[in-house]
Amino acid sequence: MTEFVFRGPVIKLPDNIDTDQIYPGRFLDQSDPSVVGSHCLEGVSPEVKNRVRKGAVIVAGSNFGSGSSREHAPITLINSGISLVIADSFARIFYRNSLNLGFPLLVCKGLSGHVSDEDIIEVNIETAEIKNLSTGETYQGESVGDFALDMLRAGGLKQVYRRRIAGEAGGSQK
Amino acid sequence: MHALEKILCRASGKDKVVTGEIVTVKVDLAEINDIYLQTLISFEEMGGVEVFDKDRITFVFDHYAPAPTVSAARNHKLMREFAARHGISHVFDVDKGVCHQVLPEAGLVYPGMVLIATDSHTTTHGAFGAFGTGVGATDLAYTMISGETWMRVPEIIEIRIDGKPRDGVLPKDVILHVVGKMKANGAVYKAIDFTGSYVHSLDVAGRMVLCNMAVEMGAKTAYIQPDECVIDYVRSRGAEDFTVFETDPGYEYSEVHTFDVTGMGPQVAVPASVDNVRPLSSLKERIHVDQCFVGSCTGGRATDIREVAAVLKGKHLAHGTRMIVIPASVNVMKECLADGSIQTLIEAGAVLSPPGCGPCLGVHEGLLASGETCVTTSNRNFPSRMGAHDAKLYLASPRVVAEAAVSGYIGGEND
User: Fold this and answer.
1) Domain count of chain A?
2) Are A141 and A128 a contacting pair, CB within 8 Å?
3) Bridge partners of B373?
4) In this structure, are residues B267 and B136 in contact, taking their beta carbons and an 8 Å threshold?
5) Which CATH number fits the domain that encloses residue A117?
6) Quick one: pLDDT band at residue B396, thresholds 50, 70, 90?
């Protein structure tokens, strides 16, 4: 079951963070989730990589996740403990991959201009409300939409499919 | 409706689709490459037992061909075992080449089809009038089981390219110019229809270059209305049963962008983003080049290798500059062996690696050390893409790459 309210420290990133920066190609032969999680944002810089920790929230500019189709990108974010990504916009395959894995993404244009690194923010995925607890300011992101919310509620595409073949009405298995 | 929408109608069994609508489509071909053992893991996690159609799933071992690490070797082994267990018909092992070259050569790509693959450059197949798009492992696993996938019907934008550039200016130069203007997020979630006299003057290989790089603007898919040269190509590869859809007269694109490339010179994308494009002539300083790479799904076709051979004929690489040449497929390799162009490259000092993706995605066969510079016919120049984080990548046409190999630098030439 995917959580819908998150609270955590901000890691700010610029526009066009591509999948090579999220998860460099030289680690693509790895499939163990904890190994994949250990290289999160290694292609951005050692400093940023060292700030990745459980509960952190990435606030990025436009076109986050551009580049390759590697599912390692959302897998590394999930397994490194990043709780969600908020950006001005997302690249298409990355968006799909994240949704399919039950990893939440939120569009809130211009948010990175209003938060600082390590500010504590609280985010509600269902309402798309964002509170900067460090400054007291609030922001409204764009609605995730019913299709995506249903996928997130289920916990991702695998759970949707398992549920479909099990013929169940509700209750995820994981 | 647009031809792409008609393809989605056919694949979803609907009479009409509307932009923004989410439709479930039947997939004609689903390709998995060797980065994506995760697809098979996801298949099992979903409780997959049988694949929906062993003839509509294909495995291509290209990103790690041949295996450079024990982990990659294990991934290949597990994929081969899975393919054997399920009787997958089309398995292209490490001897065949890059998926986006191998699949059309094998007659598996044709107009009007829906093709998904675990590779972002699946937009390439728009050159054949196919609806091709990249997906991740879990998406593909779902398709392996069900034969379907979900798709949002994209906005369709027209990129019209007319005119004739200067001699020696190649499709790669033209698409770099377009990406530079449109920017890396210029077509996110949209489909690009390439039209215009320049586009239809190109051969199949040139059209593949344009559609291949569409994803560098964020596009979901690309399209070029198939004409005689494409129909001849797919028929010659054995594809028979297909429909060429046509866009209705008066169709209104969500955006129209026009380019006139008359007299245009060579272009380069300078570090470290694909849309950081400028005319080669504007690079005023000479930049030493450590490595040149000719290859990938963008720039490793026979036409590309011949361009490079034409520049290198009777010459030698500059001292301190190396060149790696990787044909996109074994058929390309055979063609270029037969016409002597590979011999020319080797005599000039280039090193030849087996067909596949090579160093393009930074896993093997020519990675860069910290501080090194590479001029490449491939498609991405992000930090960390081809080795060290701070290696510098310049994206260019095969001709520009060849010229850099001979001179040992890029830039500093008068226009």
Assistant:
1) 1
2) yes
3) B392
4) no
5) 3.20.19.10
6) very high
For residue A102, tell me if it sits in a domain: yes
| Structure tokens belonging to residue B394 | 């310049």
- Residues in chain A within 8 Å Cβ distance of B380: 18, 20, 67-68
Give the one of A43, A157, A161 whose C-beta lies nearest to B389's C-beta: A43
Q: Where are the alpha helices (DSSP H) in B185-288?
A: 197-201, 204-212, 228-236
pLDDT-derived band at A170 (thresholds 50, 70, 90) equals very low
Q: Which helix (H) or strand (E) is B45 found in, with range?
A: helix B37-45
Rounded Cα gap, residues B390 and B375, in angstroms = 14
For residue B274, give both structure tokens.
């694909």
Give the Cα separation of A113 and B154 in Å (integer).
Answer: 30
A71 to chain B, any CB pair closer than 8 A? The answer is yes
A171 domain residue, yes or no = no
> Containing domain of residue A147, as a range?
5-166
- A chain contacts of residue B138, beta-carbon cutoff 8 Å: 71, 97, 100-101, 156-158
Instruction: Please report whether residue A82 resides in a domain.
Output: yes
Domain-located, residue A83: yes
Please give the average per-residue pLDDT across B276-298, as a whole number: 98
Q: Which amino acid is at A130?
A: I
Map residue B31 onto helix, strand or coil. Answer: strand
Distance between CA atoms of residues B116 and B8, nearest Å: 13
- The verdict on A174 touching B (C-beta cutoff 8 Å) is no
What's the DSSP call for residue A113? G
Instruction: Tally A–B CB contacts below 8 A.
Output: 130
pTM of the entire structure? Answer: 0.96
Write out the DSSP string of B199-226: HHHS-HHHHHHHHHGGGGGT-SEEE---
Residues near B240 by Cβ (< 8 Å), separated by ≥ 6?
A: none
pLDDT at A163: 83
What's the one-letter identity of residue B238? G
β-strands B131-134, B114-117 pairing: parallel
Domains of chain B and any CATH numbers: 3-258 (3.30.499.10), 269-410 (3.30.499.10)
